[in-house]
Structure formats: C-alpha cells, structure tokens
Write a structure and sequence with these properties.
265 residues; alpha/beta; Rossmann fold; 2 domains; 5-stranded parallel sheet; 5 strands; 57% helix; 10% strand
Amino acid sequence: MSILYEQKAAEGLRQLGLETAFTHLDSSCQQAAAEHWSYSHFLGYLLEGELRERHRRGVELNLHFARLPCQKRLADFDFSCQPSLDRRLIDELATGRFLHEGRNVVLLGPPGVGKTHLAIALGLQILEQGHRVYFSSVVELARKLSVAMTQNRLGSALKTYFAPKVMILDEVGYLPLDRLQASLLFQVICQRYEKHLPIILTSNKAFGDWGQIFADDAVMASAALDRLLHRSTVINIRGDSYRLKEKRQAGSQDIPKKPDNPPTS
C-alpha cells in the first residue's frame, strides 16, 4: 500500500504540473526521513522549490514582455550626484505600494540626470514582484499606433498598452508629435487613468510647456495633465547631467601634462 501511494504522489505531481517538486521528490523524501521532518515541514520544503522556480520563470517571461532597453538597478544609481532626490521616496516607490493606489510617477528634469535609469529600476522592482511592465518611448508608441491606425487594427494595438500593470513612457517631449500622434497618446493616458493602471513617465518639459507636446493643443495638454497628476508622485530632479560630468572627467584626464623640460626649437 505504501508503494502504491508513493507512485501516486509522483504521478500526481506530474499531472498537476509540479515538475520541480516531482524532480526533487525522491531526494526530499530521503532528507525528510533522515532528519525526522514533520509532514507539514516536508510538504512546505517540497513546495518552496516549486514556487521559487515558478517565480523565476514568471520574472523571465515578464522581462521579455517588458521590452526594457537595458537593466538598470537602484543600487547602481549614484544618489550623491543628485542631492535634490529624496532617497526615502524612491525606496518607498520601489516597494510597489503605489500600484494599489493607481498612482502615477512623473520624473521631470533636464537630459542626463537619471530619469530613465530610475524609471527602468522601478520597473524592474515591480516586474520582480510578479507584475507586468511595458516600456516604450513616446515617439515609438506614437509611431506604432499611427501605423496600426492606417492598417485598421488600432483597437488590438491599444490593448498592448492597457494590459500591463505599469507602463513606462520615456522621453515625453523630446520630439514633437503631430495632432494624430498626440491624440493617440492622449487615448493611452485616458484609458490607463480610467482603469487605475499606473504610468511611470519621464520628461524634460515643465508642465507649462506641455502644449508643445500635444501639437500646440492647450486643451488636450491640460486634460492629459489633469489625469496624470490626479493620482501621482512628481519628482523634479535638479542636477547635473551624468553624461556631461563623465565627459568633463574624461576630458581632464586627456589633457597632457606639461613636461618639466620642454624641448627647445
């Protein structure tokens, strides 16, 4: 009878799709017997490996879906170079609690201050918590939706931007949008607002200049900002560009030293 149930245990794990638990069943049984585990301890140990492997596969799938241009971590961000940033606020956002409030995160500042780095790092944190994330520059989003509209598949294309729990919209305002593109961007913002789905947005434009982003339509810009800022955390980064700083440092190293005894002509 014991052998029968042992066979059923293995078969049951396979039928339930618990492949990791099935693979480690024999070794876990031997360890449980040797160390006199309780039944619940044995079951918890067996399922822990299964859950850990499922989480790993889920993160891998979500990472593929996210289309992040690179992987940047909060641990790699140099907060000392951006003293205007509140580290505690960034750490709070990294917990993912803002998701449950449907709260947007708006990162403002000049080029090179780390807005995209922070957006990607927060996206990775959320992704590893089991949520879907999608990254797109605003220009790329507008281009794809414009093409979808000409091909009469706008409805299905918009679903790509409504499905993820968090959407990262990068570089809002870096390049101007025409009226159609601005209207499509507005649709994405509106729909995500209605569904309480957060947006992490980066921009180098002050809110007063957003009319330029929406094809000089001040009414559309105002309506978009109203939805973005209703539930939001706005972070204004006032600091120097990392890229310019690195360039200056590299330039100073390239300056040749003056020789002690310069050659005479």
